[in-house]
Amino acid sequence: MRRRPAPPTVPTLIGLAAFLTVVSAGSAAVPPGAVPGRDPGTRSTSGAESAVLAYLSGPAKGWTVSGQHNREPLDDPTKWTEKVHDITGKYPGLWGGDLSFHSLAQRPAVIAEAKRQWFAGSLVTLTWHMCPPTTPEPCGWDTEDGVWARLSDAQWQELITDGTPLNRAWRAELDAVVPLLRQLRDAGVEVLWRPLHEMNDSWPWWGGRPGPNGSRRLYQLMHDYFVRTQGLTNLVWVWDVSDRQLDHAGDFFPGDDYVDVAAVDIWHKDYPTLGEYMAMRRVARGRPIALGEVNKVPSPEVLAQQPDWAWFMTWAEKLVENNTEDAVKACYNDPRVLSRDDVRRDRRPPASR
Length: 353
Prior knowledge:
Layout: H1 10-24, H2 51-57, E1 64-65, E2 67-69, H3 79-88, E3 94-98, H4 107-120, E4 123-127, H5 153-159, H6 165-186, E5 191-194, H7 215-229, E6 235-242, E7 261-266, H8 274-284, E8 289-294, H9 300-305, E9 309-314, H10 318-321, H11 325-332, E10 337-338, H12 340-346
Parallel strand pairs: 1-10, 2-3, 3-4, 4-5, 5-6, 6-7, 7-8, 8-9
Helix pairs in contact: 1-8, 4-6
């Protein structure tokens, strides 16, 4: 039987109350844990019941699912998950993969591993570093024609305009992965889908454009095409921002009908501040919040003060480059942290193969 986390200390509660007083000034109050008119287990995007959202909002609420990202080599899509097991004797409760941009032939291996992880009991999340529509797949990181490229304002407007050459090129990229995501749907695998991540930052070609016709518009277009046109109702849509410009994250929010989970990536400090935690709670408005990418595992102290993180996902090699084995063990052995065994036991049984 898992031990229930200890309640927050009095100083922690006082700190939370003081911060809430500050951030709530001048804004409408939203009851914690509630989005008006919406059941916690129902996707805002498709109206279908989601076992994953029901799990995160039910049995897992108050705990944090451990997670590990796996990237190159894509022909070894459990390399870093296995390293967690080597260190702790436990498997993460969430497996993360990337549809990638320069290893297209290995995408089926990622999908096959996502299925294996799901039926082993893990939650599954997928990221996608897309090539820009100005460059055919595959591509690299290059600033001229890769993930780091920048589109002009005119190119961006063409991209988000239906039927234009850039819009068709981008749609072709989507079409290339639809059959793969459909395989997961048909196998009963729900995916915590985290596209166009860190959209409030300017390092990726899709990011750094606030406003209704900016980065969030591209997210909306992807959502509508995948869900409404292609019927990919197994995707749980994770809107993800960077900690670099978190004060302005609301300028990039796609809207209630497009977001199931709000996530932040922590790269510019060791762990999220209390202010960042509360900012994510505010923008999520009762939805689960998550640590989409971290370079350091959260400490027991952070987890005690910030209990609403639904999961964290350590980024691939950063597991060993930025963390000591003692720190990883302390995180995974914390009673607030859920491993694969915990997730498998507590969530609804996965759909039949």
